[in-house]
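Action item from last meeting closed. Structure (363 res):
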C-alpha cells in the first residue's frame, strides 16, 4: 500500500462500526432537542462530523462560540445548536435546537457509534479465551469475556457482561460488578468495583500506598491493609494509579471521571461525579466532596478537604482546605480573584522595573 492510499484509507472510521442512517426526528427523540420551525424531521443522517468538515448527510453541532463563524459555511445536513445561533445557520440546514448542544450531540454520537462508548475485547471474540488463566475458585457470571493472557485470581468474582482485556490481572478476592470494561494490562488487587465501571489500559488499582515511618535507623515500611472501593459508573483513564488505603479504604465515588496519568494516594476519598484531569497528583487522606472539578497537573498535599462543587485551575498547587463552591488557582492556590490580582500586580511591577532599567541604560 502506498502512502497516498494509506492517507485515503485513514479517513474511513474502520475501528468502529457505524449504525444508521437515522432520521432527524429520531435524534430529537434521543436528545430532547426540538426541531426548528419548518425543519424536515424525515431527513436522513448517515454520520457525525465536526462543523468545519461535515458534508451532506452528516450531523454536527455548535456549542463553543469560537466556532460560531463556521456555521454559515458548514455543509452539514443537520446541526444541533443553542437558540442564540439559529439565525446564523445557512439556508436548508435542518436545525435541532437544544440548550445543551454538546451533551445532545454526545447522546446522538453514541447511537451512531455504540461500540465507542466503552472498551471491548482486544481479541475480538466474546467468551472465555482458551489462553486466559482463571483460578478454579474464581466465580464468573454468564456473559463475561476474558481475553488471552488475562489472569483472574483465586476467589475473584466478575459480574455479567464484563470484559477483561488481554494481559489484565484481577487479583485474589477482587470483586467486579456487571457491564464493566477492564482494559489491556490493567491490574486490580485489593479492590471492590461496582457496575458499569471503565478501567482503561495500564491502570493500576490497589497497590501499596506510599507509607513509611522515617527515622535515623532508616525508613520502616508501614503495612497498607485497606482496600480500594470504586462505585458505579466510574471511568479511570489510561496509566492512572490508585493506591489502596493504609488502615482505611481509598474510595472513588459514583460517576466520577478520572483522566489519564493521575496519581491518587492511600486513604483518599473522592465523592460522586467529580472530574480529575490528567497528571494530577492527590496525596494521601485528601477528601474531595461531590462534583469537584480538578484541572490538569494540579498537586494537592495530604489531609485536605476540597468542598462540594469546588473548582481548581490547571497547574495549581493546593496546600489549604478549599471551601464548597469556591474557584481557586495558582501556586499556592487561592481564590481566583485574589490570584488574578496578584498576577496583575506582578505584571505591572515587572513592566515598571523594565521601563526603569531602560531609562537607566539610556542615562
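Sequence:
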Amino acid at each position: 500500500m502506498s502512502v497516498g492510499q494509506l492517507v485515503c484509507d485513514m479517513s474511513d472510521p474502520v475501528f468502529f462500526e457505524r449504525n444508521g442512517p437515522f432520521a432527524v426526528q429520531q435524534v430529537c427523540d434521543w436528545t430532547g432537542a426540538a426541531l426548528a420551525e419548518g425543519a424536515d424531521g424525515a431527513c436522513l443522517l448517515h454520520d457525525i462530523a465536526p462543523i468545519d468538515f461535515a458534508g451532506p448527510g452528516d450531523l454536527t453541532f455548535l456549542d463553543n462560540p469560537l466556532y460560531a463563524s463556521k456555521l454559515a459555511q458548514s455543509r452539514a445536513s443537520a446541526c444541533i445548536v443553542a437558540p442564540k445561533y439559529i439565525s446564523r445557520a445557512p439556508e436548508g440546514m435542518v436545525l435541532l435546537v437544544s440548550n445543551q448542544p454538546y451533551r445532545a450531540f454526545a447522546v446522538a454520537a453514541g447511537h451512531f457509534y455504540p461500540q465507542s462508548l466503552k472498551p471491548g475485547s482486544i481479541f475480538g471474540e466474546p467468551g472465555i479465551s482458551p489462553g486466559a488463566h482463571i483460578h478454579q475458585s474464581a466465580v464468573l457470571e454468564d456473559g463475561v469475556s476474558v481475553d488471552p493472557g488475562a489472569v483472574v485470581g483465586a476467589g475473584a468474582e466478575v459480574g455479567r457482561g464484563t470484559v477483561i482485556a488481554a494481559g489484565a490481572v484481577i487479583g485474589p478476592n477482587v470483586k467486579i460488578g456487571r457491564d464493566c470494561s477492564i482494559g489491556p494490562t490493567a491490574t486490580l488487587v485489593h479492590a471492590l468495583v461496582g457496575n458499569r465501571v471503565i478501567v482503561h489500559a495500564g491502570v493500576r488499582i490497589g497497590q501499596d500506598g506510599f507509607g513509611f515511618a522515617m527515622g535515623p535507623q532508616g525508613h520502616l515500611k508501614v503495612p497498607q491493609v485497606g482496600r480500594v472501593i470504586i462505585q458505579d459508573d466510574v471511568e479511570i483513564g489510561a496509566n492512572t494509579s490508585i493506591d489502596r488505603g493504609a488502615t482505611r479504604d481509598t474510595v472513588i465515588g459514583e460517576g466520577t471521571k478520572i483522566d489519564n496519568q493521575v496519581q491518587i494516594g492511600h486513604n483518599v476519598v473522592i465523592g460522586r461525579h467529580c472530574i480529575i484531569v490528567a497528571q494530577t497528583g492527590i496525596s494521601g487522606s485528601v477528601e474531595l466532596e461531590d462534583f469537584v472539578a480538578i484541572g490538569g497537573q494540579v498537586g494537592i498535599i495530604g489531609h485536605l478537604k476540597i468542598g462540594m462543587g469546588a473548582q481548581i485551575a490547571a497547574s495549581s498547587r493546593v496546600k489549604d482546605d478549599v471551601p464548597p463552591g469556591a474557584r481557586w488557582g495558582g501556586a499556592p492556590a487561592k481564590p481566583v480573584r485574589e490570584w488574578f490580582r496578584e498576577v496583575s500586580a506582578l505584571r505591572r511591577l515587572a513592566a515598571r522595573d523594565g521601563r526603569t532599567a531602560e531609562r537607566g541604560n539610556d542615562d
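Note appended to the action item: The longest strand covers residues 58-62.
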